[in-house]
Design brief:
The complex is a heterodimer of chains A (155) and B (743). Helices cover 35% and strands 15% of the residues of chain A. With 155 residues, chain A is an alpha+beta fold. Chain A has a five-stranded mixed sheet with strand order 2-1-5-3-4, with helices on both faces. Chain B has 743 residues and is an alpha+beta fold. Chain B contains 19 helices and 25 strands. In chain B, α17 links the parallel β23 (621-631) and β24. The longest helix of chain B is centred in the N-terminal third of the chain and has 28 residues, at 120-147.
Chain lengths: 155, 743
């Protein structure tokens, strides 16, 4: 019998193959559960494109082995909201047009959601520090900071 | 809550791609949507036109009045989809939300050239506008016929032709027929004074799906029956593969095949994780190869490289004689390091081969060119290859996407044509994508005793353009048919200068080799040349004890350029005085520096003022604020333009201060973000700008030009702050300290 693991993803139970407990959570979410929010960027925990919330904490899924997830509740970008009903942070990114290619934006929104749950009124400097380990290559940083500020005002 | 299964739409898209590939020319896959089961227009079975001179190549109006825009230019994350939609909506008088955008599909879209060079709107957008204007003229004539009135009695509005009380949707009028018209270069385009959509900040349609995880990037794309491939890279760039231990992957479940072809070595597996594990575990021995130069002697190597040919880029008067007579002579050498593209998502592609026909899903900026390259590599007729663009992570030039496609093609062929997805690793991308080549310039100038410039001379050292396109890595490794040589892009642009000096000679020594496979990265050559020219211009202004902005204005004859610099001075609250400023107390000195370019001397004007802080004790430079005055003619989408300019500035501040590909004698050693750091949030400057909109002028590009002025503006600001001249990018702290010690 192939091994399986029970995860909780975006509020739902999900049964996934678990033959290799060392498989990074990222590949499970993307390939077994068909989620597109978490993205492969480096596989090294350096860029932040793969981030998900685990029990509300921004976590790099590319270096999180499946075996370490346990009972943690996982929330991906899809679980935060939809184009029709975006979360406050997602809506702020739309309002600020804070995207160029958008590949890094998953990590930005996940990290910002984590930040705003701990600090309701972050300064621009707080936001920059919180996002310091999330890389963006297009140079959308200024808009991203404005979007997080806007979200903080709306929450 | 989101459904955890792949969505029906994903599956439809994935399977549709294979089904439609060669038979149903009209059944286009809508960009990001389901296959269009109804022909867009014209139920004829003839293939959809893609010729550049046909209206139907660019647009189609379906009986339900939906409009399809077929674009050879693709959206690389710059907002081109929205801008093109605005251009078509405006010219054809249709609601933007009724337009579906299909791009970069070699079967369906015209070959408008690669999406590079800041040419999408300037060239591709204007081809689209003229096609739409021709369609508009035809619709007016058809409506006049239908209503028995003069064409002048017909108006177009919101997708309908209107004559008095009568009105019909375009779709009814066309009755499922194509236009079957040549693009009329004289068809009148709309008067910009009547624009309602062009010139406004229409929000980008791709942003809501991108911020909610609903967007399908190339990296997300799936095809039924798809396998996963990874390539195992040689130990040295030109090492030969000596042996492979296939047993080394035996314990990994899901391995389908170990593929060896020449020096190309790859693994194909049932799952992505198995492919990754297989590629990591596979043992191979490679010959020792140490053909790269010593990194510390890179620019000595560049100078010593054989010159293939010399190109004169401008010549006025005789600078040699003028230099001999000059009261003061200045001489300097500028260097610019090797850079990598560094997309956050490494390159990815899928290839499937069936019935001797190849389909490639790719985020390539040049699907039409890739089609030719894949056909050549696999000795297939070009008609049997179809490349379909799927947007990937941001693309700033010829990165690894084409190479990932070639990897997938070689691997797919080796497993009987089954669809193979190749996702490059971070090390693949940093180590093996083609690089922005090292660039060096020698400059000389002479001043008379009044401080007037009497002569300017420059020599650029840059690799030659000897191939029509960048050769595919997999073709090199397998030794399959391919082009040979180098293609670094339009690297001599802005080697000539915008200033009216009495004697000027600018030239390029095109070199026979480059240490790493070269290609273009955002603003190729134009950035390096402008860095040297505008830094040296600053040296001349300082030597003449002149204000740098006034000094440039003295030699500028172009009224748009002059207006731009005046507006820049107002924007940046420019304090007219010579640089450097008086010695400031304390460890941290502040300074401001300016730069100006007319992009390739025939389009977009940019002026910039960088404001910096320099810490003398550590040599660290911080760009605190960056001011840009920008004139690209008619603005299509002001917010989209601002987004591009901000991106240009931030990305190029990163390149200027931090970025440098490192290598040993065998291979690239900067293989991740720790060894090739880029700018992060705390160090990003504020960007302020003045957009000069000229609705009655042609629209020019904006994806690259601002990047050209960044390194020189920063370097000039450092000179203003601490009085030392930085002539080498990246401007790392150790170079600042060394320059300070030398004073």
């Amino acid at each position: 019998m192939p091994k399986t693991a029970q995860l909780t993803v975006n509020g739902k139970p999900a049964l996934v193959p678990a033959d290799d407990g060392q498989i990074p959570l990222l590949y499970v979410l993307r390939n077994d559960l068909g989620l597109h929010g978490p993205r492969f960027g480096c596989g090294l925990g350096q860029c932040g494109a793969c981030m998900v919330l685990m029990d509300g904490k921004a976590t790099r899924s590319c270096i999180t082995p499946l075996a370490s997830v346990g009972q943690a509740k996982i929330t991906t970008l899809e679980g935060l909201g939809s184009p029709e009903q975006p979360s406050a942070v997602q809506k702020a990114f739309i309002d600020e047009q804070a995207v160029q290619c958008g590949y890094c934006i998953n990590g930005m929104i996940i990290q910002a959601t984590d930040l705003l749950s701990r600090n309701h009124f972050p300064s621009a400097s707080d936001i920059k520090q919180a996002l310091a380990n999330n890389l963006c290559r297009c140079g959308t940083h200024l808009r991203i900071v404005r979007a997080v500020q806007r979200a903080s005002r709306s929450i | 809550m989101h459904d955890l299964m792949p969505t029906r739409r994903d599956l439809l898209r994935a399977s549709a791609g294979l089904v439609v590939s060669f038979t149903l020319a009209r059944h286009a896959m809508a960009g990001g949507g389901e296959p269009d089961q109804k022909p867009a227009a014209g139920s004829s079975t003839a293939p959809k036109p893609v010729a550049l001179d046909q209206v139907d190549s660019y647009l189609a109006i379906a009986p339900d009045n939906r409009v399809t825009l077929y674009s050879g230019k693709v959206d690389l994350g710059t907002g081109i989809e929205t801008a093109f939609t605005q251009i078509l909506a405006e010219e054809l008088e249709v609601p933007a939300e009724n337009i579906t955008f299909i791009s970069g599909d070699t079967l369906l879209t015209p070959d408008q050239g690669p999406t590079f060079g800041s040419l999408s709107i300037q060239s591709g957008g204007m081809q689209l506008r003229q096609a739409a204007a021709t369609a508009r003229k035809a619709l007016l004539a058809m409506a006049a016929d239908r209503f028995h009135v003069e064409p002048t009695a017909v108006t177009l509005q919101a997708g309908r032709v209107i004559a008095g009380e009568r009105s019909v949707p375009y779709g009814d009028l066309l009755a499922d027929q194509r236009f079957a018209l040549k693009v009329d270069p004289n068809a009148p385009t709309k008067n910009p004074a009547t624009f309602k959509v062009v010139g406004t900040s229409v929000p980008r349609a791709d942003i809501p799906p991108k911020v909610t995880g609903r967007f399908t990037y190339m990296q997300d794309y799936k095809v039924d029956g798809m396998l996963h491939g990874r390539v195992v890279r040689p130990s040295g760039i030109r090492s030969s593969l000596q042996s492979v231990d296939r047993g080394s992957v035996q314990g990994i479940p899901g391995i389908v095949s170990v593929v060896q072809e020449g020096n190309f070595l790859g693994v194909v597996a049932e799952t992505e994780w198995a492919a990754i594990r297989g590629a990591q575990a596979l043992k191979a021995t490679w010959s020792d190869w140490q053909g790269l130069p010593e990194q510390s002697k890179l620019f000595e190597t560049v100078r010593a490289t054989k010159v293939e040919k010399d190109e004169i880029t401008s010549s006025t008067g005789d600078p040699k004689i003028a230099l001999d007579k000059a009261a003061r002579k200045l001489k300097a050498t500028y260097e610019f390091a090797i850079h990598t593209h560094g997309s956050i998502g490494p390159s990815c592609a899928i290839v499937a081969i069936a019935d001797n026909k190849l389909t490639c899903w790719t985020a390539s900026q040049s699907t039409h060119k890739l089609r030719e390259q894949l056909a050549t590599m696999l000795s297939m007729p070009r008609e049997n290859v179809r490349c379909i663009y799927v947007e990937g992570s941001g693309c700033y030039g010829r990165n690894g996407h084409e190479d990932a496609a070639a990897d997938a093609a070689v691997l797919s062929r080796a497993v009987g044509g089954r669809p193979v997805r190749v996702q490059w690793s971070r090390a693949d991308e940093h180590g093996w994508d083609p690089k922005g080549p090292p660039t060096m310039l020698d400059l000389q100038a002479g001043l008379d005793d009044q401080g007037n410039v009497v002569a300017w001379q420059s020599e650029l050292f840059i690799c030659a353009t000897s191939a029509p396109f960048v050769p595919l890595l997999a073709a090199n490794l397998t030794d399959l048919p391919r082009e040979h040589g180098m293609a670094p892009g339009g690297v001599t642009g802005d080697s000539a200068i915008p200033y009216a000096f009495p004697a000027v000679h600018t030239m390029a020594h095109r070199l026979a080799d480059a240490p790493l496979r070269p290609a273009w990265i955002r603003t190729p050559g134009r950035m390096q040349n402008t860095f040297a020219n505008e830094s040296f211009m600053d040296e001349l202004a300082a030597a003449a004890n002149a204000d740098p902005l006034a000094f440039r204005l003295k030699y500028l004859k172009d009224p748009r350029g002059i207006e731009l610099l005046h507006r820049l001075a107002a924007l940046a609250k420019w304090d007219a005085r010579p640089s450097p400023q008086r010695r400031q107390g304390g460890d941290v000195a502040t300074g401001r520096g300016m730069s100006y370019v007319k992009y390739e001397l025939n389009r977009t004007y940019i002026g910039a003022v960088a404001e910096v802080e320099v810490k003398r004790s550590t040599g660290e430079i911080r760009v605190t604020r960056f001011n840009v005055a920008h004139d690209c003619g008619q603005i299509i989408n002001p917010d989209g333009l601002r987004n591009q300019i901000e991106g240009n500035v931030i990305q190029t501040v990163s390149r200027t201060l931090m970025e440098e590909v490192t290598f040993n004698r065998s291979h690239v050693t900067s293989l991740d973000w720790a060894s090739y750091p880029i700018i992060t949030f705390p160090d990003v400057p504020d960007v302020v700008m003045d957009l000069i909109d000229r609705p009655n002028e042609k629209p020019w590009g904006a994806g690259e030009p601002t990047a050209a002025v960044v390194p020189s503006a920063v370097g000039n600001a450092v000179f203003d702050a601490i009085g030392v001249r930085l002539r080498s990018v990246p401007m790392k702290p150790e170079k600042v300290l060394a320059a300070l010690r030398a004073t």
